[in-house]
Task: inverse folding
């Protein structure tokens, strides 16, 4: 009986592993095809019988970007990095005390604040494009990093507050009382105890704020017209010309764009999963 149960469990594991491998291949194949296309010549891309590997390797889609041309993916990469890191820093620093206050203190209008944060996550970005453009134009932020940074923070901060609030709610209030007995006030307990305990949630908020800014296209296209200041998502549109699309160059842009995202999820997946699951205990 025990052997039958063990054989059945082993068979189920084989079936599940097979399904997982098949699903991984299906989801990863577009990324593989993007890399392969970036290394192909134009005529090989549109061949009648496409190949899974490049017949001839076309490195120019990458090497030509090392120069000082108008469309430079590595300059756009730097622009996106500067914008995304700034959004991550601002969103994380501002959302941590806001989330702690919403989780630990009682005040009038608290539920309204939480509802407003939820509403901001439901509204599409195009709703605020016109008022933001008018405001940034009067402030002189058009064609500068400041416009997409501030605009992306309007997405990153509400999301981070909602994530961190549920995380702070999952921390027992007895820790606050213990900190007060040891001589800490609210601020010192917040800095020395709450933030270290909530570090997985802080990492999740920081990562998602970075990804929001990194993948932004609408704000980068709307508020920045200069090619040398545009982020990499907006720079990809440079290869969609009037007479066709340079697919190998466009795919090379895509490969460079996904590198930080892939690295983040490879090295930070443990913290991301831990932060999301631990913060989902209370609402």
Result:
């Amino acid at each position: 009986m025990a052997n039958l149960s063990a054989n059945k469990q082993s068979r189920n594991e084989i079936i599940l592993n097979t399904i997982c491998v098949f699903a991984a291949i299906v989801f990863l194949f577009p990324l593989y095809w993007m890399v392969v296309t970036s290394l192909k010549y134009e005529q090989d891309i549109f061949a009648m019988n496409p190949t899974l590997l490049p017949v001839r390797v076309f490195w120019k889609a990458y090497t030509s970007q090392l120069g000082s041309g108008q469309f430079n993916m590595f300059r756009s990469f730097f622009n996106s990095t500067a914008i995304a890191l700034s959004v991550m820093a601002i969103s994380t620093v501002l959302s941590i005390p806001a989330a702690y206050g919403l989780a630990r203190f009682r005040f009038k209008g608290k539920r309204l604040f939480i509802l407003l944060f939820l509403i901001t996550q439901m509204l599409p970005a195009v709703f605020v494009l016109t008022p933001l453009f008018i405001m940034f134009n009067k402030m002189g932020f058009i064609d500068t990093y400041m416009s997409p940074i501030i605009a992306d923070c309007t997405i990153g901060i509400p999301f981070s507050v909602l994530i961190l609030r549920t995380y702070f709610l999952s921390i027992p209030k007895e820790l606050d009382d213990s900190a007060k007995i040891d001589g800490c006030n609210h601020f010192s307990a917040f800095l020395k105890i709450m933030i270290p305990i909530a570090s997985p949630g802080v990492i999740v908020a920081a990562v998602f704020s970075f990804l929001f800014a990194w993948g932004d296209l609408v704000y980068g296209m709307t508020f920045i017209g200069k090619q040398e200041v545009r982020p990499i998502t907006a720079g990809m549109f440079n290869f969609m010309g009037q007479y066709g699309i340079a697919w190998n160059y466009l795919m090379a842009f895509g490969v460079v764009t996904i590198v930080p995202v892939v690295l983040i999820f490879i090295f930070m997946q443990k913290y991301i999963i831990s932060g999301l699951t631990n913060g989902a205990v209370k609402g």
